[in-house]
Amino acid sequence: MRNSNTNNWRSTALIAGAILTAGVVTTTSTTDVHADNSQNNAQVSNDQVTYDQVRATADQQLAQLQSANDSKEAQQAADLAQTNAQINQLKASHAALEQEQAGAIAQAQASTAASIEAQTSAANAECQQQINTQQQNEATQRAANDQQYAQAVSQAAENQQAVADINAQYQKALSDAANTQTSQAQAAANNYNSAVAKENDTYQGKLSAQQATNAENIKNAEASLASATANANKPYEVATTNDVSVTGRVAKPQTDFKVPAYVTKYGIHLEVRDYNGAIPVSDYTYPEFANTYYGEYPDSAVITNKAAESTPHDISEMPLDFQPGLLSYDAKNDHSEKVSADGLTADQVQVLRALALSWENGFRNNVFQNYREFYNVVNKNDGFVNVAPVDLVSTDFTDNIANQVVANRTKYNIDNNSHTVISSGMPAEATYTSVINDATKNLKKNLTSEFNGKTVYTDVNENLTTMQAGTPTLLNYAINLYNSMQGMYYGELVNPTHIGGHAVNLLCAGVRTVGIGFQKLTDEMTAKNGSGVSDRKNPSYAVTFDHVGFNIDHDANLTKEVQNRNVWGTSTVDAQLNTIKTAQYHVNKVPGTKTVTPTATDVQKATASEQQKLADVKAQAQQSLDALASAHQSSLNKLAQQYNDAKAQVKANYDVAVTKAASVCDAALKATGVVGLQAYKAQLDSAYQNLVKADQVAAQKLAADRDAKIANIKKAENVKLDAKINELVPSVDPQIKQLQDQHQAVIAHGDAVLAELKAENKAAYNKLAEQFNVQLAAIQRRENAKRANEVRLANNTVVLHSAVKVANDGNIDTVAFPTASNPLQAETTGRVQTVSAPSIVKTATQTPIAVAPVVTTVNHAAENAVKSNESSAPVVTQTTAVAATTNNGTQTSVASTADNKATKADNSEKSVVKAGTVAKKQTPAKKSESSQKVDQSSMSIVALAATALLGTLGITYSSKKRHN
What we know:
Layout: H1 2-28, H2 37-100, H3 102-158, H4 160-232, E1 236-247, H5 261-266, H6 346-370, H7 372-378, H8 396-411, H9 432-450, E2 456-467, H10 474-489, H11 501-507, E3 513-520, H12 523-526, E4 541-552, H13 556-563, H14 574-584, E5 585-596, H15 600-606, H16 608-672, H17 677-728, H18 733-788, E6 790-793, E7 796-799, E8 854-855, E9 876-877, E10 880-885, E11 891-896, H19 929-934, H20 939-951
Parallel strand pairs: 8-9
Antiparallel strand pairs: 1-5, 2-4, 3-4, 6-7, 10-11
Helix pairs in contact: 1-2, 1-18, 1-20, 2-18, 2-20, 3-17, 4-16, 6-7, 6-10, 8-9, 18-20
């Protein structure tokens, strides 16, 4: 069934291809065109007939192919229905046969049941017979036992007197043994009691004598301790050294001076002559920060009230903490060391580094403790909110960084208003970040490796200020630096939402070290406008604070653990800080004497030896008593052991006598031939119970064997019954399975043939495309010749006679024929290849047609169709084959024109008719489920392509008549 349909599909496709090929050849064969209407009319008539024939043939073949495709599913359904009918017929036959053989089946079932019953009864009888035999054996054994016991009882009665004499002798022997045991035990007890009484008397005498000796010894020791205690409680004079605390003078920052009147009047808006820029108006959240701005200016000259307590006289009086407020300087009371005209010495630099480090730590800790909101704002994204910072350190490691930064700044002439960065005019390798990166690269590498999987952030920054002195002393420089740092840090905390950059840098909790550098400024630098240096007689300095640290993944615990490691170098400012701390607070030792009243502890220590002697005497006394008690107890134990041994011997003697009496009795009874009736009866009963137990085990096995035998009987008989029933009514399941397998084979074979058919159709399509290109080239050559002879006369076009025929030289470019399998088809969809304009022919009514231009369409055929109306010439439309995509994802060749857009979105074609043009209507393909599955076969593409090629001849027909 399925194979014949598939062969029909193959034949239909090949026939359609042959007819379409022939139709195209007929259409494209033509002769030279002259200015003769009859010739043109004849040509039009032939072309029209050929076109209609090819169109009708293509429509017919498409319909046949569609019908064949539609019949595919119908054939499958018919085959399935036939298979199901056969299966139902088999089942019906099987049911009828079962009904027919019902009597025979019932007879076989009854026979099987009877056989099983008979064999089961025989097996039960056999088992019961064996059990009855066991019970008979048990009864026989029980009777024999009774008889033997009765004989033993009878014999015992005959020897009753002899047995009585023997038993009387046995009882007398037992009584004699008991009497002997009692007398021996009493003698042993008497001996033991006498020895214990004697030992107790001896012990009591020794105990009384030792107790008297002990009492005398303890009395003497207690008297000696009392005398020593009295002596120890007497007061006495001793030499001593008194601690005298000495607190040095420490200047306090000045915070209570009055702001000048113009500041009060106009707000906090200070402008200082010669200073670069003005301090902005600020909303001072904390009033104590207001005056710290003054620290930005030379010598703190704007301070109007120089309080004495805010004026240090030496380096040792400089505060080590860093509270808000400024210090004053009094040159007359400056006792610090001088600074030469060459500038600070290395030791003086270390003193200033120590002070600056202490002040930076003081600022960080004071802000954290008392102005927490500033600290938290800075560290809100770094993991240190409400986490106290670790103190900064200044070490040999950071000194090297600071010295290198100073050297680079000096080398590249960087002034005190410029940071150590590229924009200040120095190369990248000289910047402070480059210096720090070089110094910390190994440490960072190790940390990155250690904390693999976490981000290691490098926290580096630089603060910069200017230090100068009107008087060349170390104290003047220190005060100037202190006030400058007040402005640089507290002065930038005027508004919680606008913290200055210097304060932000210092409050960053990720930094652990600071390299403090002192760059001596040149005269050229100090002379610059805005340098802020007021007195150029003494050296001035740009002070750099280069902070370094690492933040481990914004985790405060990990970061602080790294900060506390011994990887930051050795401190170089501890000695300087300790010197200042000692001057500000220390303790002096003053010699003298004092009367000491012994404390209880002192008395305890003084009398310790006497107390020990008393303790030793008491201990010795107790030891002597313990020794006597131990010896006494040992004697008692020995006596008790002797008594226990005597009692054990008495018991052993009794046991020997009893054993001997029993042996004599048994020997005498044996001589008379009498046995023990109770023991004998127990022996007989035991033998009988063993027999019963063995029979029970055997009975269980007999029952199990019987049940297994009955199960085998039922199984064998049921197998025979099944075979008999199958013989009477054979099963139809194998036949049903065979029919189902045959139906699946039909479906599989049909699918394979359909795939082969698609491949063959594609080859036929490609061959037809090649033929179309050859014929189209000939058409193009002829049309070029025709167009060369066209002459426009009024509203008519006249084709002049051509003396030269167009040769089929094959040199004209071949128009690409659309190929459905071309992967580039989608990219060129809707494009129309430009060809030579075909001749304009008249309608069958001989009405001349006005010349119209050749229109080349693009990929907007529906939107850009050339419009026409009754007053315009009819449109000559050039067409070519384009690709459309059906809704099942395959490509189908469709004829497309500017006035006629064939749409295939629903697997059918629609024609559009424009005014002045009659377009040949496409034959709609029948829509069905099979067409979506088979894709209408590749031959539908061939047929539509043939139709598209006929369109390239330029054959259109005017629906209106015009007069010459």
